[in-house]
Write a structure and sequence with these properties.
The protein is mainly alpha-helical. Helix content is 60%, strand content 3%. The protein has a two-stranded antiparallel ribbon with strand order 1-2. Strand 1 and strand 2 form a beta hairpin.
Length: 675
């Protein structure tokens, strides 16, 4: 192939290479190490916030660009020798270039098939090209560089409103303002705890915090998610809730909390042995079973459906080509586009033993830790090996889906369910097993992302490998240190009921992890789901997911001329349920509107503008809003200064009755008593 078979890649990625450009320079070490430390610290800080901040590599890239250009101008062009050795290096060997820039981005922040184009990788390439290539603009127009900085500056200046002065505009729910005394109306209108009808957000961080930027995904991904969102949110959830399935009306419509039989938040301390941190069956029998909100129940159900549908989807649609790719992996005649041929021609591949040595040593270390602290971690060596085996099984499936559609899946629920059946009553074992598996899966997927990015820009694979190893080592220690410091320094962190008004340190992700640890680890799936629990219907969705892609595949084979049939993707449809309890409907609706506006209507009607500016717009919005919020966090919010004391400071949609049950007999503070 003379070029990529994917149109977005042809429009975005250069099909040339200059192997003489230097990648590893003194600038990488003098600037990259401090920024790697800073990036790791900021990411950890962001995870404690109510609205998680997705810090894309773009946020660091512009600091790299400015800093490296400054160093290229001020550093002397001379050779320095390391004392006591014969090693020497140039302080300023060459002008700052795009390959050096991306290599440094990989430092501070598998797939060779040309059809696996990785949309999120392609989205970042225009930024680098805008910074490093000569950009000829028409008279009166904007260069890509100017466009990016205008967007960056605009959203940076605007972010002070939703982040500091008027936090309530993150979710404006007009239905709640009209029907102030109706529980049902507020459940329908609330953008945070209800169905989100008539709600809107004026905050970019709210739109992207759990879903990512809608500008970087193909329109078919957004359409599939929209279908799933509408079916799950406006058919399954309302029908189950208002028909009072599983006593659902005793509880909230949308929440990640678990409840007891009286409609109160579940008191976990009543069913756990405080000495061994294991399950107390006798206390559980005296207290109550665990009850879910309808939204959390369907989140679990459709997560299982996504796993099984991914297996069917990829096997049916890509199984043959994947098998051929794997067979050709070590041969010289595999099909490659121009990017693959240039990489193979100019650079050495990474020896396989490099990967094997790291893999085996890390597995050995994990086993050593678990066996040495068996009573504290509650996890045994064979469970570590099982977690690794599951990663080996599901990583290729997830990466194929991510590479083609730009949207993959997490393995959290799968790991929780498996270890919950194998080792019930031990919540620490459940969380440790999940973390070993999911972290290995996420790191591996991100490594593939970086390799694909370097593949498009033609950076030597061995350099990318070394930079990622060093970055991971630094990040590990910084991440742990910052988390420890924040937990000891911020009063009442992760306790929303005790935090002052406007405080962002509510830790929604950690709360969700705690709930799943109790559900799948402490109590266990056998008592909550199958065979002894009331929610065994959840596992029926695994069968639904396995079967669902088959009719679509059969139709695509019967009507190959109808290309839209192939775009129906059930893993993406089921994916819509994954962040429903924590993401909020207001973020979803705005996400869909923005995504379809740019990646469908503008893409088809103004292709030239879209090609030039779309990904830069996404990068500018992400970078400007994230940089402002992080500066606000470390400057004012660490000092418990959250904004002016007025009703607009409240980080809610002012729909208090959306948090109320709708059946008699359940008494919740702040809710009317239903007779």
């Amino acid at each position: 192939m003379d070029d990529s078979p994917i149109e977005q890649v042809r429009l975005t990625v250069p099909s040339t290479d200059d192997p003489t450009l230097q990648v590893l320079t003194f600038r990488i070490w003098i600037l990259g190490v401090p920024l790697c430390i800073l990036q790791s610290a900021l990411v950890r800080i962001a995870t404690f916030r109510q609205q998680f901040i997705y810090i894309s590599p773009v946020c660091i890239d512009f600091f790299l660009y400015g800093g490296c250009n400054l160093l290229a101008r001020v550093l002397p062009n001379k050779v320095a020798t390391i004392p006591g050795t014969r090693w020497s290096f140039s302080l300023n060997p060459c002008p700052f270039n795009i390959k050096e820039h991306i290599a440094m981005s990989i430092f501070v922040n598998s797939i060779d098939s040309p059809n696996m184009w990785w949309p999120s990788v392609v989205a970042s390439i225009p930024l680098y090209r805008a910074l490093h290539e000569e950009d000829k603009r028409s008279k009166g127009g904007l260069s890509r560089y100017q466009f990016f900085f205008i967007v960056f500056a605009t959203i940076f200046a605007y972010s002070i409103i939703p982040a500091y002065f008027f936090q309530s505009i993150t979710a404006l729910s007009f239905v709640c303002w009209i029907w102030k005394d109706s529980i049902t109306a507020q459940q329908i209108g609330s953008g945070m705890n209800g169905l989100g009808i008539g709600s809107i957000s004026l905050d970019w961080m709210t739109i992207t915090s759990f879903l990512g930027s809608p500008l970087v995904l193909p329109s078919f991904v957004i359409f599939n998610n929209l279908i799933g969102f509408i079916v799950i949110t406006y058919i399954f959830i309302p029908f189950s809730y208002w028909s009072n399935a599983y006593e659902a009306r005793k509880f909230l419509l949308f929440s990640t909390n678990i409840y007891d039989s009286h409609g109160q938040k579940y008191n976990v301390s009543r069913i756990i042995d405080s000495n061994t941190l294991t399950f107390n069956q006798e206390a559980y029998d005296k207290y109550s079973k665990i009850y879910f909100t309808t939204s959390l129940l369907y989140c679990y159900a459709f997560s299982l459906a996504q796993y099984t549908s991914s297996i069917s989807e990829i096997t049916l649609c890509y199984g043959r080509s994947l098998w051929q790719t794997f067979k050709k992996a070590y041969k010289d005649d595999d099909e490659q586009d121009v990017h693959g041929r240039l990489m193979k021609q100019n650079y050495e591949s990474i020896p396989q033993w490099w990967f094997y040595s790291i893999l085996l040593s890390m597995i050995g270390m994990a086993i050593l830790v678990c066996e040495s602290f068996a009573s504290q971690i509650q996890l045994r060596y064979w469970e570590v090996l099982l977690a690794c085996a599951l990663v080996f099984l599901f990583l290729p499936l997830e990466c194929v889906l991510e590479a083609i559609a730009g949207s993959g899946f997490t393995l959290d629920l799968l790991f929780e369910a498996i270890i919950g059946y194998l080792n019930p009553g031990k919540p620490l074992a459940n969380m440790a097993f999940k973390l070993y598996g999911t972290e290995a899966h996420l790191v591996a997927a991100y490594a593939i992302y970086n390799f694909k990015l370097s593949h498009y820009i033609k950076i030597p694979p061995k350099i990318v490998f070394h930079l990622m190893i060093l970055s991971a080592t630094i990040s590990c220690f910084i991440d742990f240190g910052i988390a420890w410091w924040m937990l000891r320094s911020i009063d009442n962190i992760c306790q929303p009921d005790l935090l002052p008004e406007g405080s962002p340190w509510t830790c929604p992700s950690d709360k969700a992890m705690f709930i799943t640890g109790v559900t799948w680890g402490l109590v266990g799936p056998s008592k909550t789901f199958y065979p002894d629990g009331m929610y065994s219907i959840v596992f029926i969705f695994a069968l639904i997911g396995l079967v669902a892609p088959i009719p679509v595949w059969l139709l695509s084979q019967k009507y190959p001329e109808k290309k839209w049939i192939r775009l129906i993707n059930f893993p993406l449809i089921f994916n819509a349920a994954l962040v429903l309890p924590v993401g909020g409907m207001v973020g979803y609706w705005n996400w869909f509107i923005v995504g379809l506006l740019f990646n469908y209507f503008i893409y088809h009607k103004h292709r030239e503008w879209w090609t030039r500016y779309n990904y830069l717009l996404s990068a500018g919005l992400d970078a400007g809003s994230a940089v402002f919020v992080l500066l606000l966090s470390v400057s004012l919010q660490f000092q418990n200064i959250y904004g002016a004391n007025w009703w607009g400071l409240e980080l809610s949609d002012h729909c208090p009755l959306s948090n109320c049950p709708t059946v008699p007999g359940v008494i919740i503070e702040g809710c009317p008593i239903i007779q």
